[in-house]
Amino acid sequence: MSGNWRRLAAALTVLASVTALLRWLAVSNAGTVSTSYLLVVLVVAATSRVLVAIVTSIAAMLCLNFFFLPPIGNLTIAEPHNWVALFAFLAVSLVASHLSAVAHARTEEAVGRRDELARLFDLSRDVLMMTDSPEALAVLARSVARRFVRMSGEGLLLAVRDHGPGIAPADLPHVFERFYRGSSAKARASGTGMGLWIVRGLLAVEQGRVWAENCPDGGARFTIVVPAAMKDVS
After folding, report:
1. Structure confidence by residue, pLDDT tens digits, 57-81
2. N or C: which end of the chain has fewer CB within 10 A?
């Protein structure tokens, strides 16, 4: 959340700077002003979450109204065609913000999938190069750990996430309870609500743990930690 507040503060600072520059240059053409504001909104949408872009769009609309549409220095509008221009600017900036945010999210998802495919390709290459020997299983385990698992202070850490709607806040504290089924799963006949409870129990036997969380940019992440010690292999 703090990151979003910083991005919003930066966006509003840039918006104020653009407003001051346009006022200093005595720009009075509404088309030039709205285009300048729209560029700011697009840059914000490309680098921040959609909520930050929406707030920036509304702030830009207020600046356009207050500083550049007659009567100047007032949030009222004297001429009817300026109402049309104002709401057209707001609509365009909101739609552009949404489209830019969607494109940004899909780009991040594509990059993540590319990295996952690269790791899977490397793992498949490791498997093809393995020989049929008593050490084959240990070699495979090390290959999987090297590609997909990282060490933390607690041990081996494995995280899996998706880019879907995430877990409902009401369900999040209960997803590892026995027989618990989330609100979206109750409409399906399949499933018993036992899977995640079993996972937590198996990890508890090994002094490990598992938890779920919603990601700030959408989707859910499940993280597993298993106690382990680093061992030098010579």
Report:
1. 888 888 888 888 788 887 777 777 7
2. C
Cα(66)–Cα(60) distance, rounded to whole angstroms? 10
Cα–Cα distances in angstroms (integers) from residue 41 to residues 69, 95, 189, 211, in the given order: 19, 11, 46, 37
CA nearest to 47, candidates 85, 91, 92, 14 = 14
For residue 59, give every residue at least 6 positions away whose Cβ sits within 8 Å of its Cβ, in sequence order, or none.
12, 15
pLDDT in tens, 191-214: 677 888 888 888 888 788 888 998
Give the separation between CA 203 and CA 200, rounded to whole angstroms: 5
Question: Cis (ω within 30 of 0) for the bond into 227?
Answer: no
The closest of 225, 73, 218 to 152, measured between CA atoms, is: 225
Q: Please report the domains of the chain, with CATH numbers, ordered by start residue.
A: 2-106 (no CATH), 150-234 (3.30.565.10)
**Distance from the Cα of residue 55 to its chain's centroid:** 18
